[in-house]
């Protein structure tokens, strides 16, 4: 039985030729990652024994062996990250496998035009992430004291009879929570739009729960940007300025990058 190919990423062949690949251990910790040239595209792969890394075996490991999953996912992430520092790369998802070199070559060749366009898009650009967190209790206090809709509701209630006031006041907390979410979204949208002006693309992602972030503050916004390398410093400075301006009001900004461009490249494996 022939070995499987584990694919980490695809890069322009002219870059792979001019920048030698350092020695990197493969997915099994034994073999070495190597370049596989497919005309204008070079794939970075390693070989795996088919009987040990079958689809069934990997699925079982992913679902039942958390230690294995964490180790291998970390290996994949670190390897792609290292490659992204040296090449214009289209990164592949965790555990992208091919039965043999021919099947990989056929897939690359069928996507050759799209890959060429993607390389042009990514060259000289970087992916950066911005997460915005907020202290809900601090912001709720500010909203309660300054929001015009809430103040109008209070004035309306004050004109009612004492009996009706008792029941209507219970609706204030619901209104405060609603206005809190509205103001949070508006604030984050304004930050996003400002940063998008110095980016090629900006995309909004799903917020992470506190169980995932490990933070006491709630994530209010999660976004990724594709930036020209020349704009990265300005991007970071803008976020630092926002942190200084709004941090006292319960906002916290977390910027990270550059990352492999997972969100701005695609490849049909």
From TrEMBL:
InterPro entries noted in UniProt: GvpL/GvpF (IPR009430)
Its family remark reads: Belongs to the gas vesicle GvpF/GvpL family.
Per UniProt, the keywords (alphabetical) are: Gas vesicle
Q: Give Gene Ontology CC terms.
A: gas vesicle
Q: Which organism is it from?
A: Guptibacillus hwajinpoensis
> Under which name does UniProt file this protein?
GvpL/GvpF family gas vesicle protein
Q: Which Pfam families match?
A: GvpL_GvpF
- Supply one GO BP term: gas vesicle organization
Where does it reside? Answer: Gas vesicle
- Give the domain of life: Bacteria
Coiled coil (residue ranges):
none
């Amino acid at each position: 039985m022939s070995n499987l190919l584990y694919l980490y990423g695809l890069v322009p062949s002219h870059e792979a030729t001019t920048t030698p690949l350092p020695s990197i251990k493969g997915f099994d910790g034994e073999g070495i990652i190597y370049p596989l040239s497919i005309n204008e595209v070079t794939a970075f792969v390693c070989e795996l024994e088919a009987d040990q890394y079958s689809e069934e075996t990997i699925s079982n490991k992913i679902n039942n062996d958390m230690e294995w999953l964490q180790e291998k996912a970390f290996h994949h992430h670190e390897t792609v990250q290292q490659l992204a520092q040296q090449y214009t790369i289209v990164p592949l998802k965790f555990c992208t496998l091919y039965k043999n070199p021919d099947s990989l070559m056929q897939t690359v060749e069928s996507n050759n035009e799209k890959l060429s366009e993607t390389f042009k898009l990514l060259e000289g650009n970087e992916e950066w992430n911005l997460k915005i967190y907020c202290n809900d209790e601090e912001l709720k206090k500010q909203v309660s004291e300054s929001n015009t809709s809430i103040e109008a509701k209070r004035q309306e209630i004050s004109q009612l009879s004492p009996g009706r006031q008792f029941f209507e006041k219970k609706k204030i907390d619901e209104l405060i929570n609603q206005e809190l979410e509205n103001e949070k979204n508006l604030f984050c949208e304004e930050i996003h739009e400002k940063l998008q002006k110095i980016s090629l693309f900006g995309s909004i992602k799903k917020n992470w729960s506190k169980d995932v972030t490990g933070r006491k503050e709630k994530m209010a916004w999660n976004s990724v940007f594709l930036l020209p390398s020349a704009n990265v410093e300005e991007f970071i400075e803008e976020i630092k300025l926002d942190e200084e301006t709004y941090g006292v009001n319960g906002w916290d900004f977390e910027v990270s990058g550059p990352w492999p461009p997972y969100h701005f490249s695609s490849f049909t494996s």
